[in-house]
Amino acid sequence: MAQIFSPLPGTFYTKPSPEALPYKNSGDPVVVGDIVGLIEVMKTFIEIKSEVPGTFSGYVAADGSPVTAGQVLAELAA
Amino acid sequence: MSLKIVNPGLSTSIQDLGRPGYFHLGIPMGGAMDRFALRVGNMLVGNPEDAAGLEAVFMGPEIEFQKTAIVSVTGADLPIRVDGQLQEAWTSFEVRAGQTLSFEFLKSGARAYIAISGGIQTPAALGSRSTYPIGALGGVNGRAIQALDELPLGYSSNAIAGKSVAPSMRRGPGSPARLRVLPGLYWHRLTEAAGNGFFEDEWTVALEADRMGYRFKGGRSLEFVDREQPFGAGADPSNIVDGCYSYGSIQVPGGAEPIVLHRDAVSGGGYFTLGAVISADMDLIGQLQPHTSVKFDRVDMAGAMAARHERKNLLMKIREELS
């Protein structure tokens, strides 16, 4: 099991816009550099990319929830 | 060249103590959001307190040193590594030529200050190296640092590793953070209940919080005293005939969410300001993450001056300790 961490504090989003589908669903393949979510802070959206390949297990942080740096956002099965 | 930026972090910028003297022309003072942390960082590495260092917000940069230097990291708790080896914060340490300075995830606070012996020697603009991106002043060609930038360092002969500031003298916000406020010229625009409510409510830092200003939400909306709309003022009760904004002043557009103006703020406009966060507490705002709880405490002028005096004394004590 690999984890994707938030690199900074802010608000986490699992999808690119409120109407869109989540970036990843359980079972989706993930390659290095795939975007799995966004963090909003200081009027900016920062793309969260996976640094490891695997199969997406699910989001740990909810869409629209406040997160801190180092918090687990999502999990992958290697 | 002496510092090579491998990874800039989120928004890492060169900052010194700023460029006061041009606010009347619309050019903000700029400079470190937590001036205390930058001053102490510079003291630790034997620099003048107004030397330019790096302000890293929420995320640390990765920097390859091309020249051996003494370094300190103060302010936010952002664990420090030199070639993978953990280093103490608020303590000077050596980084040898060829080594890389990097950081782990932020633990607390918001902005870490990286002071390097000799100071960063990029060209000054209007007397300061501070980065003001909107005006394209200071920094590296008027912007924050980017990967592959090379930053020149000055000469230093009096820096030593192992200097440290006692934890009791490292200043940061508590939880909830308490910010002291001096009510201002437009206080009479608020009803008594609204004025009291501002100080009673607990606020949280909104996502719209940066070097220009910090927005707070979660408290009750303000109610205004009825008035006849002055000539030249907007129709909203929070509007005034344009006036000057001071560093730390608190505007509340529409009476909804207070915004504390910080180092890179606009110098005037058409919103009333209910007062100002006192200068002694402005550094604390620079260390607030979004979603943090904040309480505002009312002080009078004597209280504000006493707090300023206390802050000066703390700096003096650290100066003596490190000299």
TrEMBL record, chain A:
Q: Does the keyword Lipid metabolism apply?
A: yes
Ordered alphabetically, the record's keywords are:
Biotin, Fatty acid biosynthesis, Fatty acid metabolism, Lipid biosynthesis, Lipid metabolism
Q: Which residues form the Lipoyl-binding domain?
A: 1-77
Which pathway does it serve?
Lipid metabolism; fatty acid biosynthesis
Q: Which CDD domains match?
A: biotinyl_domain
Tell me which domain of life the UniProt entry assigns to the organism this sequence originates from.
Bacteria
Report the NCBIfam families cross-referenced here: PRK07051.1
Q: What does this protein do?
A: This protein is a component of the acetyl coenzyme A carboxylase complex; first, biotin carboxylase catalyzes the carboxylation of the carrier protein and then the transcarboxylase transfers the carboxyl group to form malonyl-CoA.
Would you tell me the protein name for this molecule?
Answer: Biotin carboxyl carrier protein of acetyl-CoA carboxylase
Q: Organism classification, top ranks?
A: Bacteria, Pseudomonadati, Pseudomonadota, Alphaproteobacteria, Rhodobacterales
From TrEMBL, chain B:
Q: Which domain of life is it from?
A: Bacteria
Q: Cite the Carboxyltransferase domain residue spans from the record.
A: 24-314
Q: Which UniProt keywords apply?
A: ATP-binding, Hydrolase, Nucleotide-binding
> Which InterPro entries did the record assign?
CT_A_B, Cyclophilin-like_dom_sf, PxpC
Q: Coiled-coil segments, which residues?
A: none
Q: Name one Pfam family in it.
A: CT_A_B
- Keyword ATP-binding set for record: yes
Cited Gene3D superfamilies: Cyclophilin-like
Q: Which NCBIfam families match?
A: urea_amlyse_rel (TIGR00724)
| Protein name, entry field | Biotin-dependent carboxyltransferase family protein
Q: Which organism is it from?
A: Pseudohalocynthiibacter aestuariivivens
